[in-house]
Amino acid sequence: MVLQNRFQVSRREILASFLAAPVVMRAAAAPVAPVAIARCPSYAEDQAALLRGMFDQIGGLGKLVKNKTVTVKLNLTGSPALRLQGKPLGSTHYSHPSQIGAFMRLLGEAGARRIRLVESGYGTVAPLNEYMLDSGWNVRAIVNAAPNVELVNTNGMTWKSKYVRRKVPGQPLMFPSYMLHPAYEETDVVVSMAKLKDHATCGVTLAMKNMFGITPASIYGDDAGVDDPNESPTKGRVETCHLGKRQPARIAESEVDPKSSREPGYRMPRVTADLAVARPIDISIIDGIETMAGGEGPWIRNHWRGALRAVKPGIMIVGTNAVSADTVATALMGYDPRAPKGQGAFRECDNTLLLAEQMGAGAADLKRIEVRGGRIDDLMFRFTG
Amino acid sequence: MFLAFLLALAMPAEWVPARWNSSDPATLELVRGTAVNCLVVERGNWSPTFAEKAGAEGISVLGLVRPGDDLSDLPARAAAAKLQGIVFEGAFEQTALSRTRAALADSKLAVVAMGPRTRMDLQAAGGIVATNQGVWPGINAAEDGKEKAAPSGAPWIDTNSGFLRFVRASLNAEKPAQVWIAYQPPANQVIPVTRYLQAIADAEMLGAHWLVTLDDDTRKRLLAREEKAVDGWKRMTELLSYFQSHGEWRRAGPYGQLALVQDVDSGGLITGGILDMISVKHTPVRPMPGRKLSDDEMKQAKMAVNVDPALLTTEQKEVLRRFTRGGGTLLTAPPGWKFPPQREDQITLDKESVEKLDQIWKEVNSMTGRNNLGARLFNVASVLSYMAVGNGGKQLIVHLVNYSDYDVENVTVHLLGKWKSVKLLAPGKEARALTVFETEDGTGVEIDKFGVIGTLLAE
Questions:
Q1: The domain that contains B293 carries what CATH number?
Q2: Cβ of A103 under 8 Å from any chain B Cβ?
Q3: What is the CATH number of the domain that holds B105?
Q4: Under 8 Å CB-to-CB from A173, ≥6 apart: which residues?
Q5: Does B359 touch chain A if contact means CB atoms closer than 8 Å?
Q6: Chain B within 8 Å of A242 (Cβ-Cβ)?
Q7: Residue A123: which of B153, B378, B381 has the nearest Cβ?
């Protein structure tokens, strides 16, 4: 095991690993897929060439997207008004526009029939193009990078259509099902275009955690309707999802166990793991070229990790199994992907990777994941500084 | 000789003021050739030599007095110090102030009453209307210093611009006064020059002047000619020159299809009220004091907000009825809602009023929505804007003031209507023609970058 000599194993951890034997057995059964990693020092590099090369290493993009509707979930977390030290959003906590444009181009070249860029813009159902303009992006360049590119804000019902219910297969951890914008149903391929970041509530935020943003604020928001969705939401989802102070609008199913912990560190990893199987991710692209450490956005304060800082790990991760990709990404951040609650990145929360593994989404087991394009040891950037 | 230098002095309406904590004539070199043409000096620095030397440079010197100062023989003492005027800063006891002002009436000295906002004589014919109550402008990102564990919305910008918009709209229409606002920089802080530039632009974009006031450290370093402080001062005076060199901006009227019917008694003089709430969303809004409410004034508006209907006269209410019958959308404050009387020492809202206003604000936000009421601005979270129309409606002026410590990049502006050309102006830079493109509302432009101020001129 490559990481064995880097992460010191205590007697307590060894004991814990025996106690977690059923989980290990599940890890052995859960699927894995190769993960491509690459070094890329800046967004000025040819992003299309970079991504093309990485996809080639895992079998090529064409076979994944040709003649298909591809839905790309971006990471535009928090209001675009909030910046870390005034830096462009794509250099800290948002997906980077140049990389999105490059990926659009690749999708077009690979024969994608229709491309939908989706995100639930913070506290708004305004068109996604306006949200992107507010992020300082050249929307015209992104939309014109490939044929049939659409932008959809999935925070409310922006189509003449109905929300769709996605059941959580097996044993749900937080909600039995999730009501989502139909863009997440009427698609052949779902891409999570995430940012490599620490996360105050989930330890790390990568491809799977990025998908938390698919829950519409109209139903799961702090000002969601009680019965029906509020189609003019103005807030985030803290009350319902992070804190469990309220249930979602009744159009959606309530929590499996309303008496469960109200701690965000308990709840959010479970919501994330639920979503990983309710709406699986087909392609994970994790951008660690420029990002931030210490938290997932500039609003994080007084966290145990200390001050937020902009960092340049200069790494990219691409994979077709989100748990595999997130596991490799976590290791590249210098964290133990299998650390239990209370340790490493997961000091104050459950480990989403292990929960997703438990749900059968994939194995968070580096021994089973084939890493292509580079070695974790060589590309590792320790987020703990 | 004395007459000659008097002729060279600017008229009070043209004064661009700064506090000056020195009576050393050598310090005038810092002001020479700049837009600053009026120095306000503390009593300890009243000096005929200084005033004479300043006058020879075309710079007026005003003496500052505060409550508690000895006001006896003020005309004689001011004349002895060869001052051009007196500034009464603070909440003077009214009788004493009136008596002193009467004594000064024959002296030909200019008098500037710079006290509480509620004492401003908005109907004064000409002269200077001033207050010493203002907030230090800037981004107020901290939310009580508490940890934020989830994404949150946009930061609030502390600004005097809403108040100044209202004041400007309320001035004597025939002979409007020049407006000054004075406030001190925050104490015990290192204040970068950008914060001073923001304070200047916060007032200047509305055609008003901030009485430029440096913190103790900056002032000492400037008077000692420390290079960095002198460079900062140059940037401040350059920004003042930028606004002074465009007198037409000052004459241009406010533009926007949203009218805010508001008066002094309904919070017009309050900072952080409904006008600032609308401004921070970049909705072009025109304050409309009830007194000025007319069919003609409402022609430009498509939407209106009536903050306190009970304050309007029958005729004013009829203007609004005609406005709605003509297709305008009117939002009226909830029945029974009454703005609490503004105390003399109050310039911001108390908590209860904020909560009440929040209700109105939500409705205003819902009403304006994504409508383009003059311009829509994107990627401008740290920016406040002011739109004015000049040259008989042929020129649109959009001031963009950036309150962050960083340059603003990649701003998109959707102007309402078709405009053939749009230029970007900024202090010390050549005007630059922007590429114009069509939008659903009319005309779009993209601005790659600007610092504290950028001005769009559309024609």
A1: 3.40.50
A2: no
A3: 3.20.20.70
A4: A256, A270, A271, A273, A274, A355, A359
A5: no
A6: yes
A7: B153
The single-letter DSSP state of residue B264 is G
Q: What is the ipTM of this complex?
A: 0.79
In this structure, the dihedral spanned by the alpha carbons of residues A39, A43, A46 and A50, taken in order and rounded to 10 degrees, is: 40
B297 lies in the same domain as B402: no
Q: Do B155 and A138 touch (CB under 8 A)?
A: no
How far is Cα A2 from Cα A336, in angstroms, rounded to an integer?
Answer: 12
| Chain A environment of B149 (Cβ under 8 Å) | 200-201, 238, 242, 264, 300
On whether any CB of chain B is under 8 Å from the CB of A138, the answer is yes
| Residue of B379, B405, B409 with shortest CB distance to A80 | B379
For the domain that residue B452 is a member of, what is the CATH number?
2.60.40.1180
Q: Whose structure tokens read 């010197």?
A: B61
A137 in contact with B at a CB cutoff of 8 Å? Answer: yes
Domain endpoint, select from B245, B275, B309:
B245
d(C-alpha B310, C-alpha B318), whole Å: 13
Is residue B155 very low, low, confident or very high in pLDDT (cuts 50, 70, 90)?
confident
Q: How far is B321 from chain A (nearest CA, A)?
A: 29
Domain containing residue B60 = 2-245
Is B251 part of a structural domain of the chain?
Answer: no
Helix (H) or strand (E) holding A267: helix A264-278
The tokens for B436 are: 């114009």
Choice among B55-69, B145-159, B255-269 with the minimum mean pLDDT: B145-159
Closest Cβ opposite residue B381 in set A81, A130, A238: A81
End-to-end C-alpha distance for chain B, whole angstroms:
47
Which residue from A130, A136, A236 is facing B410, i.e. has the nearest CB?
A136
B446 touches chain A (CB under 8 A): yes
Chain B closest-CA separation from residue A93 CA (Å): 11
Quick check: A135 and A76 in contact, CB under 8 A?
Answer: yes
- Cβ-Cβ pairs closer than 8 A, A with B, add up to 82
Binary contact (A135, B446; C-beta < 8 A): no
Q: Across the interface, do B153 and A81 touch by the CB < 8 Å criterion?
A: yes
Residues B320 and B233 in one domain: no
Contacts of B383 (CB under 8 A, 6+ apart): B282, B377, B400, B401, B402, B403, B408, B411
Q: What is the dihedral of CA B117, B123, B126, B127, to 10 degrees?
A: -30
Do residues B132 and B207 both lie within one domain? yes
Question: Residue-wise pLDDT tens for chain A (385 aa)?
Answer: 333 333 343 444 444 444 444 544 566 789 999 999 999 999 999 999 999 999 999 999 999 999 999 999 999 999 998 889 889 999 999 999 999 999 999 999 999 999 999 999 999 999 999 999 999 999 999 999 999 999 999 999 988 889 999 999 999 999 999 999 999 999 999 999 999 999 999 999 999 999 999 999 999 999 999 999 999 998 999 999 999 999 999 999 999 999 999 999 999 999 999 999 999 999 999 999 999 999 999 999 888 998 999 999 999 999 999 999 999 999 999 999 999 999 999 999 999 999 999 999 999 999 999 999 999 999 999 999 7
Tell me if chain B has a CB within 8 Å of the CB of A338: no
A82–B152 C-beta distance less than 8 A: yes
Q: How many domains does chain B have?
A: 3
Tokens linked to A213: 């943003």
Query: Which chain A residues are Cβ-neighbours of B155 within 8 angstroms?
Result: 81-82
pLDDT bin (cut points 50, 70, 90) of residue B219 is very high
Please state the pTM of the whole predicted model: 0.86
What pLDDT does residue B394 have? Answer: 93
